[in-house]
């Protein structure tokens, strides 16, 4: 593993892993709020009950973060997992008009927290396409 890949994987993996660990044991009310927001990008999540959704999100983030941090997971596999994860986050950003300015691209104040996920998509692209 090159130093640049280790940096991309380490920083991003630690961030995503920490986020997932923080969502373990999410109270039902918090899971419902997160699910409602997620449904703006991925409507199918409404088919899950809130507690199941909370567990799926937590363990998905833990899995993606662990894949990035584990050296024997191929960079293309870890990058693909990160790409799918960040694409889901960006779908919420682009499908929710409150997240962007009137042009549908630039983030509004409410959208700043999700717009940064474009960096994770770029990192995923770098991992998948690196030779």
What does this 3D model show about the protein?
The chain has one domain. 69% of the residues lie in helices and 0% in strands. It contains six helices and no strands. The protein has helices spanning 3-23, 28-38, 50-69, 75-95, 112-115, 117-129. Helix 1 (3-23) runs antiparallel to helix 3, helix 3 (50-69) packs across helix 4 (75-95) and helix 4 packs antiparallel against helix 6. The longest helix is centred in the N-terminal third of the chain and has 21 residues, at 3-23. It is globular, with a radius of gyration of 15 Å. The N and C termini lie close together (11 Å).
DSSP summary: helix tally: 6
Q: Provide the number of structural domains.
A: 1
* Percentage of β-strand residues: under 5%
Helical proportion, percent range: 55-70%
Measure the end-to-end span: 11 Å
Averaged pLDDT: 92
Q: Which sheet architecture does the biggest sheet show? A: none
Number of strands: 0
Overall form: globular
Oligomer: single chain
Name a few traits of the molecule.
0% strand, 131 residues, globular
């Amino acid at each position: 593993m090159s130093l640049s890949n280790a940096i991309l994987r380490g920083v991003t993996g630690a961030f995503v892993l920490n986020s997932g660990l923080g969502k373990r044991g999410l109270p039902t009310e918090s899971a419902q709020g997160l699910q409602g927001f997620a449904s703006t990008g991925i409507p199918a999540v409404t088919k899950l009950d809130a507690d199941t959704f909370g567990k799926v999100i937590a363990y998905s983030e833990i899995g993606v973060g662990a894949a990035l941090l584990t050296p024997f997971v191929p960079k293309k596999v870890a990058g693909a997992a990160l790409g799918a994860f960040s694409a889901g986050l960006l779908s919420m950003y682009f499908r929710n008009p409150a997240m962007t300015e009137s042009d549908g691209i630039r983030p509004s104040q409410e959208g700043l927290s999700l717009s940064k996920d474009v960096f994770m998509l770029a990192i995923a692209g770098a991992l998948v396409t690196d030779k």
